[in-house]
Amino acid sequence: MSGRKTVWMTGASSGLGLHTAMALRDDGWRVIAGARSFEDGEADGMIRLKLDVTDEESVRRFCEEAAKIGPPDALVQCAGMLVLGSCEETTTEEFRRVIDTNYLGMVRMNRAVLPLMRQRGGGKIVLFSSINGLLGIPFQSAYTASKHAIEGYAECLQMEVKPFGIQVMLVEPGDHRSGSDKYRPHAAEMSPDSPYAAAYESGTAVIHHDEQNGSDPDRLGRKIARTLDRKTIPFRKRIASPDQHLAVYIHKLLPAKLNAAILRTYYIGKKQ
Ligand SMILES: NC(=O)c1ccc[n+]([C@@H]2O[C@H](COP(=O)([O-])OP(=O)(O)OC[C@H]3O[C@@H](n4cnc5c(N)ncnc54)[C@H](OP(=O)(O)O)[C@@H]3O)[C@@H](O)[C@H]2O)c1
């Protein structure tokens, strides 16, 4: 990479965000990383700033401090969480928290960063979606809704900002061995007496198993770093195992009822 470029990142304290931050650092980027658990300072060759993407004032402060260090050539948004629960027993407050973090958090950051990129004549914005941004799976409705929102939003964004030299890329990871249980709480109303209890147990066991046996997060980080180094970046970058690529492909081809039957059987089983 010629000259040192600066990337601002959200959700860089753990999981795929941390792996991506490390890969970008290793590729020579100056990484300014934000997370709630960070104190302002420097560590592991990266600059850390405290950031809560659900808080407008925190976003404003992060951008102000980061701009003093180096304006953004790229913004990579990984901050995210999910709540596991049935649609019926996930409260509106839990839905709100997930949407506020995953989707509105991105909106807030983009609104703060877009003027800076426009003034500089360009930039790259990377938004972490998920395979769940393309298809729904049981007991992850709040998360799935937030990722579908990101997908629709990004399609609008890329068309609007193209004339300003700003490129947008959606990263759509399949399961990776990275996510922390801390960011995957069970909905408070889920209980052993729930009418969904048996299906929920089966579904969350499959979700947990797939993540534990998922793809390598280091590899994902390196792929994103390599892609960001290109002059032109793709709008969609799916990083998933062959069977998850196939699931998305099949989802596009098959009738909705058949898709639902396949996914339901996979997560919940035929008997329930
Ligand atoms: N892991 C997977 O298999 C997988 C698959 C598909 C998509 N993804 C997506 O990849 C991204 C990273 O997920 P992950 O599972 O790898 O990581 P994770 O371990 O769940 O980490 C979540 C990150 O988000 C940050 N975060 C959460 N709430 C925040 C807030 N309000 N403000 C600022 N930062 C916040 C956390 O930092 P603090 O707590 O320090 O703030 C942490 O760095 C997410 O967008 C996720 O949806 C992951």
Question: What is the secondary structure topology, with strand pairs?
Answer:
Elements: E1 6-10, H1 15-26, E2 30-35, E3 41-43, E4 46-50, H2 56-69, E5 74-77, H3 92-120, E6 123-128, H4 141-161, E7 166-173, H5 197-212, H6 217-228, E8 236-239, H7 242-253, H8 256-268
Parallel strand pairs: 1-2, 1-5, 2-4, 5-6, 6-7, 7-8
Antiparallel strand pairs: 3-4
Helix pairs in contact: 1-6, 2-3, 3-4
The structure holds NADP nicotinamide-adenine-dinucleotide phosphate.
Name the helix and strand elements from N-terminus to C-terminus, one letter apiece.
EHEEEHEHEHEHHEHH
Order of the strands making up the biggest sheet: 3-4-2-1-5-6-7-8
Count of discrete alpha- or pi-helical segments spanning 4 or more residues: 8
Gyration radius, in Å: 19 Å
Which cofactor or ligand species appear? NADP nicotinamide-adenine-dinucleotide phosphate
- Mean residue pLDDT: 96
Structural class: alpha/beta
Q: Tell me about the largest β-sheet.
A: 8 strands, mixed
Shape: globular
Q: Poorly predicted ranges (pLDDT <50, ≥5 residues)?
A: none
Report how far apart the termini are.
54 Å
**Beta-strand content:** 15-25%
- The number of strands is 8
Give the proportion of residues in helices. 40-55%
Structure characterization notes:
The protein is of the alpha/beta class and 272 residues long. It contains eight helices and eight strands, in the order βαβββαβαβαβααβαα. Strands 3-4-2-1-5-6-7-8 form an eight-stranded mixed sheet, with helices on both faces. Strand 3 and strand 4 (46-50) form a beta hairpin. The chain binds NADP nicotinamide-adenine-dinucleotide phosphate. NADP nicotinamide-adenine-dinucleotide phosphate is lined by residues 10-17, 35-37, 51-54, 78-81, 101, 128, 130, 173, 175-176, 178-180, 183, 211, 214. NADP nicotinamide-adenine-dinucleotide phosphate binds next to helix 1.
